[in-house]
Amino acid sequence: MTLWLVLSLMTIVAALFVVVPMLRSGKASITRDDFSLEVYRDQLRELESDVRRGLLSDDEGKAAKLEIERRMLGLNTGEVAGDAQKSAAARSLPVAAMIALGMAVLGFFMYAQLGTPGVPGQPFAQRSTPPADGQPGKMREVIERLAKRMETEPDNLDGWSLLGQSYSSVAQYDEAANAFQQALKLEPDNTDLLMSYGESLVLTSGNEVIPAAKEAFEKALKIDPTHMGSRFYLAEFAAQQDDLQAAMDGWLALVADSPADAPWMPALMQRLEKVAKAQGVELASVLPKSLAPTGGNQMPASDEAAQAPGPSQADVAAAKDMSTGDRSEMIRSMVNRLAERLKDEPDDLEGWQRLARAYGVLGEQDKAAEALAQITRLQPNNIDAMMQRASALIEKSDRSKPLPTEAVDIFKKVLAIKPDNQDALYFTGLAASQNKQFSLARERWTKLLTLLPKDGQAWQAVSGQLAKLPLQ
Questions:
Q1: CA-CA distance, 413 to 399, in Å (whole number)?
Q2: Which of 4, 191, 348, 375 is 20 to 30 A from residue 285's alpha carbon, by CA?
Q3: What DSSP string describes 128-186?
Q4: What is the spatial distance between Cα 107 and Cα 127, in angstroms, rounded to a whole number?
Q5: Would you say 288 and 301 are in contact if contact means Cβ atoms under 8 Å apart?
């Protein structure tokens, strides 16, 4: 009973996370708490990606997810608090109810069919195709209603993403690929969408990496050279083309960059054993020393593993028996270890990204902002890092006072790179209004209105703020 109560709460919270952006009718933030909510949504997406890529264990991912959920529920926004009295929070409730119900039905059905508390998640290339038949009519009805809704909201990025995930959950991979393709038209450089689209094509084609899937993985890898899933499938493509050396090289590189307890490691080792045998190569002779098998697929602990910033296999095993406090202390110790390593390796971009996310989850916004500053040092035009740094600065600021100057400067830099960034337009307008630069505020918010669906809730809220500006 306790398990189902917990699952019920998590389902409600998760539904809120998806419903909020669907109801926003765009990406424009209206209040500082709305902006924080958007940041937490980004953190959840990053968290899901990190767990999938093995950068965080399942236990760490769950703990971090619960912490982010707690903070989202603590925000003073109509979307989360349910305050229907505030005009900025007045959203399309019937649609919200439909989506929330859909998520609940999907979530509980999939758990009832596939889930048990002791079974780990299914990583890429280890997924078995679930049966498409016998699904409850209610779940399919919800998906159909969402699909119908998207016919009238073709520019709703989150809606297409949710529809793709929904189709994937019932093994309708062809429809899932179409939904993800629509989402990519709105955000073509989103590596998670590229991965989901490519993987849907692979599953549609009987686990064959077809050219369209290969193209998606190549694009994701071009954007993020460390993208684990894309590297895996591109090596798989090489193997399917009988280029066994390229496949082996790709998988060996992936092994070298993966944590020892990464969920895809067994699949990697199986493939490597197969291609090594076909090549007449002793697998142990080409594996990194710390990962050379001593029997089966077991990988021994090593001095290198003990010094790594992430958890070793022994760490993960020990964490299962720890109290919540001890586990938190262990996580903090690993974060501190990563921070110390980065002092000696200041150009490790992925390390700084992990550290920034970790500090964000721990609530240490000052340190998160410092880590994000290192990311922007390495990638001066990384808009995501700049926006996250601005949000961290806002998070630690006094909300009764004007926006932090440094955050406003970051928003200005974002606009210099991407003039149509809606969050940056809103917050630079807000800063101008706070500084009595009403002409500039009017200019920014007028432009923002041209980017929002006319007469939508976000459009109306910004229009209302614009009307309140004094004339100069």
A1: 22
A2: 348
A3: PPPP-SS--HHHHHHHHHHHHHHHH-TT-HHHHHHHHHHHHHTT-HHHHHHHHHHHHHH
A4: 18
A5: no
DSSP 422-451: HHHHHHHHHHHHHTT-HHHHHHHHHHHHHH
Could you tell me if 135 and 109 are in contact, meaning their C-beta atoms sit under 8 angstroms apart? yes
Tokens standing for 182?
Answer: 């629509």
Are the CB atoms for 346 and 374 separated by under 8 Å?
yes
Contact 261, 312 (CB under 8 A): yes
* Per-residue pLDDT at 126 exceeds 50: no
Q: Looking at 65-74, 77-86, 94-103, 428-437, which range is the least confident one? A: 77-86
Examine the pLDDT at 405 and tell me if it is beyond 80.
Answer: yes
Distance of alpha carbon 313 from alpha carbon 155, whole angstroms: 44
Question: Per the structure block, which two tokens stand in for 455?
Answer: 């007469």
Q: Tokens 């929904």 correspond to what residue?
A: 166
- What does the pLDDT read at residue 160? 92
For residue 346, give the DSSP letter.
T
Query: Using CA atoms, how far apart are residues 174 and 168, in angstroms rounded to an integer?
Result: 9
What's the pLDDT band for 472 if we cut at 50, 70, 90? low
Taking CA atoms, 176 is separated from 180, 198, 442, in Å, by 6, 10, 41
| pLDDT tens column, 151-162 | 998 998 888 988
Phi, psi (deg, nearest 5) at residue 187: -145, 75
- Give the integer Cα–Cα distance in Å for 320 and 39: 30
Percentages of the chain per state (helix, strand, coil), in multiples of 5: 70, 0, 30
